[in-house]
Amino acid sequence: MLFVGCDWSDKWLDFAVLNDAGTVMAERRITYADAPDPVAEYQAFLAPLERRWRSAVTGIEDTGILFARALAAAGMKVVHVDPTRAARHRSALGIAKSDRADARMLAAMVRAGICRPVVASSPDAQALWTLTHAHRAAVAARVEAAHSLRAALTRFWPAAAAAWPSRLGGLRNAQAMTVLAAAPGPRAASKLTRARLAELLRQAGRTRAVDDEAERLHLLFCRPAMLLDPHVEEAESVRIRDLVAVLDRAVSRAAALEKDMHAHYTRQRHYPLMSRIPGIGPVLGAYLLAEIGDRPEERFGGGRSLAAYAGVAPLTWASGTTTRVAFRRASAVHLRSTLHTAAFSLAMKSPGAQHYYRRRRAAGDAHATALRKLGRRLVLCLYRCMSASLPYDDAVAFGYDPERPDAPALQRRSPLSLDEISHARELLAEPGATVVAVAKAFDVSRQTIYRHVLGRPRAA
Prior knowledge:
Number of helices: 22
Distance between the termini: 78 Å
Strand order of the largest sheet: 3-2-1-4-5-6
């Protein structure tokens, strides 16, 4: 049996090989520039050392680098050595810091069992992980581009920054980007006719109430506004047009990656399970499957370990008569943030989750604490279902009988209070009042007025 320690850097890899007795059998440095295939060269380096060299265990501090992933894909056994434990080990033994000494120390730690096996997900799950991280980056770039455009409009043309409500997408709306690309300044916008605005809205994909929206924008752009010198305004307009183009590319990039991610998501083995969970759509489901992987029982060994990895398991400190429960910060950041969003969405769509959340809030938990505990329930349920190939059942997950009369029922909060509903009815009773005008007065949709004020399920 061979135990190999690999100390990596941006330019080269240092290896040290120990046998069962702890004797250093060989050492080698492989430079990336000199080796077109470091994995093949590494295997050729191990081959003369022992007959069963393919069973060698390679320990490395970062199993996410290309060499470690390619080595695992080639069938070699790779284990992870925690960098913090390696630094403490080096300090305790008084080993001077160098690449060669680090490789020897890592090999000794692997031989002593101070390492953790790496359980890789299937190739489909790894591909989904790559696409989800790319989608996260694209969404972050899209948000940054929207914030940059909004900030530039706020300091140059405040009316345009608030022209499109956030409930319709705000500046990310295709209509907003089309109009701003055609008229990126107040002077240019004031010259747009109603017909030209209607044409731009149709180009952006709007099909309903086009003339009404064109009239609204025309009245907004024709209002008096603070103007700069024409030369300065022209420069600001160039800047706005460039920011609109950046936002347009960011929106298209995020949409394309979401489409590819969804295609890989539907091919996952646990896709039927995830698609049955209420409130978990294709994006959240893909994020959860990518971070958990498709082999949780082999990777984590238990639901409690997965909860600790996700950061939703409490960390208890006890000394004498003092006991303190703290938030677990050392965790998978992406999985923890995804579980926070998934728990919030689950509480909106699942009767059992909503009842559990309200019960935790009534017990004195803060909003984030209640969501974290709900996320722990969710991740334990996911581990159980994925390990035993069981379908998701909301009643089993939250321990209630749906046939009982006191079973939890989904409660939805009305977007209008009782006083607002009464006031809206009074406005509708006035001569000439319309549903559209009342909806604009309360900043809600027409469907909300029909459903909650008039008691009709949909507009006639």
